[in-house]
Amino acid sequence: MNKALPLLLLLAATAAQAQSTGCLNQSARVTSVYRGEQLFSLCTADSQVSYSLTDRIPRLVVEVLTPAKLQGTVSREDDFRADVRLPLNARVDLNDYRGSGYDRGHLAPAADFKYSATAMSNSFLLSNIAPQEPSFNQQAWNGLEDATRACAQQTGKLTVLTGTLGKSGSLNGRGRVTIPASFFKMWTDGQDYRLWVMPNVAINKLTGQQYGQYEVSIKQLQTYWPEFSVGLPLNAAQPGKLCPGAIPLKQIGSTPAVRPATPPRPAAQPAYLPPRNDAPYYANCAAAKAAGAAPLRRGQPGYRAAMDRDGDGVACE
């Protein structure tokens, strides 16, 4: 008997099962555990979500892009809404974001789903959304999403894994919806990959070369998510080399990339880390005023020196 036959039959059965259950058909076999927590799996024909019932944010979203998918003309409707597939106490709704100062940031971006009205609408389920600092979401992160689509055009088929790492607070300090410390995005064609980890802080538009400061290897990502794996034959110890035309390769010269003993810079915690007891945290003065907390005095919960522009000890006056 051909020794390869059982493997071929298994792969065929897996693909058939994905099609029959209406789930995304993709080759990566991603972990379902985040730092010891069993993640809740949600899937459609267009994406696969691994959701934290504790943090109430997606920890990983997988999608597959092709040039044909990117030719669609469906427009976005911004129909953000709760995902009723989740247990009631783990659902996020629009009230959780109201007045927080954070954007509702897509993990699988709406612009990837112009080929289908259903897929586009599903991208606005809050199970595909996590709090993002506004300028980061609209500039640096948006640029990485554009580059992702460019890579898909080059490769013909691209599996994209987008996720969240850590915790830097919660929306409106309520302890319900975690604000991730960092976001990551990984591209793979099954043979090679690229991977970036970016802190969830204000980062404006970047040049292609500037993304190199945030590029890491899979092994470096595992410093922050030990269980992370994709089940593909990739060199986890070194940053990949996929699609240098979309984003230039990381310039490492004659020295190796960041050593495991030195955590990669992009995944470091934000310069200001809100207290882990979820004391009030306001991203900016607009958020503080919307919550009725302004002005904020030095020593008062929620006060940050970054919001005290004149240094008089009173912020957002």
Automatic annotation (TrEMBL):
> In the UniProt record, does the keyword Oxidoreductase occur?
no
Q: Which PANTHER family match?
A: ENDONUCLEASE G, MITOCHONDRIAL (PTHR13966:SF5), ENDONUCLEASE RELATED (PTHR13966)
| Keywords linked to the UniProt accession | Endonuclease, Hydrolase, Magnesium, Metal-binding, Nuclease, Signal
- Pfam families assigned: Endonuclease_NS, Excalibur
Instruction: Give the InterPro entries listed for this entry.
Output: DNA/RNA_endonuclease_AS, DNA/RNA_non-sp_Endonuclease_sf, Endo_G_ENPP1-like_dom, ENPP1-3/EXOG-like_nuc-like, Excalibur_Ca-bd_domain, His-Me_finger_sf, Non-specific_endonuclease
Q: What is its EC number?
A: 3.1.30.-
Q: Which residues form the ENPP1-3/EXOG-like endonuclease/phosphodiesterase domain?
A: 44-218
Q: Where is the Excalibur calcium-binding domain?
A: 281-317
Catalytic positions are 106
Q: What is this protein called?
A: Endonuclease
GO MF terms, alphabetically ordered: endonuclease activity; hydrolase activity; metal ion binding; nucleic acid binding
Q: Which cofactor does it need?
A: Mg(2+)
| Binding sites annotated in the UniProt record for Mg(2+) | 137
Q: Name the enzyme's class.
A: hydrolase
- Its signal peptide is 1-18
Its family? Belongs to the DNA/RNA non-specific endonuclease family.
Domain named DNA/RNA non-specific endonuclease/pyrophosphatase/phosphodiesterase is located at 43-228
